[in-house]
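batch job 7 of whatever, protein = 4298_t:CDS:1
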Amino acid sequence: MAEAVFAHTALQKGLQSRFIVDSAGTGAYHIGEPPHPRTVKLCTDNGIHIEHTARKIRVNDFDEFDYIFCMDDMNLREVKRMKKSTKNSKAIVKLFGEYDPQGQITIDDPYYSGEEAYRDIFVQITRCSEAFLQSLEL
C-alpha cells in the first residue's frame, strides 16, 4: 500500500520522474504474491494504480535507493542490521511514520484487522507521503 500511495502522491504533485519507488519485506512470507485484495480494493477505490509482486529486501537496495522506509520498529531494527553488512551505503533508513504530522510513528500492518484498519493505514500513509515530499522542498 505504501508504495502505491507514495507513487500516486508523487504523481499528483508532478514529481514522479524524481523517484524510483519499490517495496520489499524483511521476511520471505509472501514472495511472488500480489498485494492483499483489501489493499488493492482500497487503492483502486481511491483512484490509485497498484501493481506489485512481493519481494524480500536485498543488500543492493542499500546502494540503489536514497531512502528505505520501515513501517515499524521491528522492521527498522532488521533493516538497520542488514545495512551494517553493506559498504558505503547511501540509503537513509528510518520509519516512514516519522513524517506523520499527527505523530503516529508506527504504521501498523492491517493484515489481521478489518476494513477500518486498512482505511486508517491508507490515510496515515497518505499523510506521511505528503509530508515527506514537502520535507524535500522539491
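notes: Residues 37 and 43 are 10 Å apart (CA to CA).
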